[in-house]
What does this fold into?
Amino acid sequence: MSAVASRVDLQAAFLLHSIPYKETSLIVELFSREHGRIAAVAKGARRPHSALRGVLLQFQPLSAGWTGRNELRLLTAAAWVGGMPSPQGDALLCAFYLNELLMKLLPREDPHPALYDAYQQALFELSGAGPHDETLRRFEWLLLREAGYAPDLARDIEARPIQPGRQYRWEPAAGFAAAEPSAEGDPGLISGETLAGLAAGSFPSSRTRSQAKYLTRAILAHHLDGAALSTRQILIDLHKL
It folds into this structure.
């Protein structure tokens, strides 16, 4: 890699996470539109009069630059772009949940522009008065799809079209298997209507919303290999996720 190629300027990004580094600096995790997830040292960002101190805020659009060839880069610039309200209350926990998903499921330097745009849209929705659960389901599914973990929503494991009136059961590493209706309330059964709703990003009933929540939670847990999501547990405890 050339010295020119190792420097990146003026990139749309969001701050996902930061931790203290040495006495006055931070290690920041950025989610950029064109370069994916980037880790960088923000030198002096913890100093009281640092220009970065009031800029490196989560859930706010940034313009950032960095340099370096190693996995840990050096942050060279960061500016607040503005124009977005911050989530509040329960919505703020939901936004932290999105950040945690991105940190755990996306490898570094793997760009996903569509996912970046969906993240920004999700933050707008969480800042409004709409239903948070639908916003989370749409983002979860797009993240699974972009990461290559989402099963086919159009056909079952026998290559037959998914039918709205049928019931299906998700089988890891295989897809959806058609199932006969069983006892009422079996959480493992997902209707074809719910799968169509996931594909369209729309959940017209409490039943489809409940089934979509169960399904995305199961698929995420499988691909996280048992790693706990602290923000999700908080939201579950609050009956919001």
